[in-house]
Amino acid sequence: MIVGVARCKEVAYLECDIGQTEFTPPGCIALHLVSSPILGPPFTHQRKAVRMCYFGQLSAQEDPVRYVACVKLVHQAYAKLKANKVPLIINTMGWNRGMGLNLLVDVVSITEPTHILQFQHASKNKNMPSIDVSFLESTLGMVYSGRLHRHELLRIHSGAHIHEWAKQYKPDDHRTLCLLSSVSQMLQWTVNWKLLPLETLQPYKVSWRCVGVHVVESSVSNSMTLYALNASIVALCAADEKEMVRSEDDSLPMFFHSTPICRCLGFGIVRGIDPVEKVFYILTALSPKKLEAVNTLLKGAVTIPACILTSQVTSGAVPYVIPVPDVHSALGGAAEKPRSFRKRRRYKYGPDSALSLP
User: Fold this and answer.
1) What one-character DSSP code corresponds to residue 128?
2) CB of 215 within 8 A of CB of 302?
3) Hey, which of 146, 239, 268, 282 would disulfide with 260, CB 3.0 to 4.6 Å?
4) Could you count the other beta carbons within 10 Å of the beta carbon of residue 82?
5) pLDDT digits (tens, 9 = 90+) for 204-253
6) Each residue of 307-316: pLDDT tens digit?
7) DSSP string covering 283-336, please?
């Protein structure tokens, strides 16, 4: 299999791990074409996708059925590439217990791989059960079941535990770096080859009535949605207008009863919202031509990194940033005392007396 892939000019890569994405910001399921070696961590090679769907969460546990639907939508874009004999590599989640295994069965049912490469960790409790035919026959997916799929199972020992240096960066760090790398595509250079900060960039002006809006990660009423979108990262999507619900006031944006399963064209930052003119001010790296296809703004669990907010150059207080003491006073509570998580001393009971210290 590896030799066959190496002979191809390009390979397709289906990203199904929404918490640790390779080519996009976190929370995305995406299909990519790769034609050159991939060197370095994910934030060094963020790129455009052939098709991308914004799930909006860092774990599929929040909405497993929608996760499976997103994988199916993105995988459909591989049909044309498959006809051209472009091989497909699928990166699944490392969730090796409970619902994670059920979702893995769904991904296998959708993609029907010819080979499954299973990495074996030195610690047995970190390994999945063997993803062989008997496993697929006896394990139900969250959506699909009863699909018999024949494949070749390959096992390889992982050397991840050997590289201690990798532990200095936690998953949250990698997600933040990927997001910063993606946001940096919005930056512009001056004639003196200096980068302009985000707060100096000219945003796009988008009328409320032209787009539908939705908050993915929690139940937010329509009256509070605009507050949630302000100063947030949003996925710029193209959804089916039949799923949108128009308000009685035509000047207001449209809403959704549930999170739409649709294509994501890119990302933007809602820099401001004007309630008088009823427009959004959005910063994005998308071209004006691609923006014409955007009709939906989705806000998920991915937020603007704190370093972007705190590094703004302002004459007064930094917008959307509250000093820590003010937060405690606003919430009506004092500063919390640091807790110690030291191991408690053990006491040994003697055979005849009360107790004796070790």
Assistant:
1) P
2) no
3) 239
4) 12
5) 999 999 999 999 977 888 889 999 999 999 999 999 999 999 888 888 89
6) 877 777 666 7
7) EESS-HHHHTT--EEEE-S----HHHHHT---SSSPTT---HHHHHHHHT-PPP
Say how far apart CA 68 and CA 107 lie, in whole Å.
Answer: 7
Which residues, 6 or more positions from 127, have their beta carbon under 8 angstroms from its beta carbon?
Answer: 96, 120, 121
Note the pLDDT tens digit of each residue in 247-258. 888 888 999 999
For the chain, the average pLDDT equals 83
CB atoms within 10 A of CB 114: 11
Residues 6+ apart with CB under 8 A from 10: 33, 34, 35, 86
Overall pTM > 0.90: no
* Separation CA 213–CA 283 (nearest Å): 16
φ, ψ (nearest 5 deg) of residue 122: -65, -30
Looking at residue 320, its amino acid is: Y
